[in-house]
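dumping this here before i forget
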Amino acid sequence: MKRSLGNKKISTAVFISGRGSNLKSLINFSKKKKSPIHIKLIVSNTKKAIGLKYANINKIPKKIINFKKKFQAETRILNILNNKKINFICLAGFMIVFSKKFINKFPGKIINIHPSLLPKYKGLNTHIRALKNNEKFSGCTVHYVNSNIDSGKIILQKKVKIIKNETVSSLSKKILKEEHKLYPKAINKIL
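structure:
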């Protein structure tokens, strides 16, 4: 999916559930002249997501969608995305798995960042599991989203060395720093 004529930026939505550090990094990236994305919407499944403050700071419209009834929630989101003419979705710590039906509405246009070297350690608690298994390396992966958790085609990965006496906290910080660089690189690669 390459940008259309006139180098127009692609209308993008970012979905979050938590602190939004990748959202913040994507907003900064989107403001660069050469960035291919324009973030027009931030969606969260919880009003408690700390990252929503970046929507306010940057005056980006936000929507909070309750996912207790998944089908209704997805239908509502699809309507919002259509109204805002969103063509690309970045998941940044979004803790909901979309249905196949939802994903099929955006074929090859939903990507996610995950804090492990996929296919290893899909799902949650990636750092704990990597340390428990005495891995020499961990890292982060940007991948396309399909209907299986963290299983879509890999776009880019960054390896991080696990040092002696590494803690979950120290590993998490190291990987997060790399995530902030890798996500924009992956977007530039595919758009």
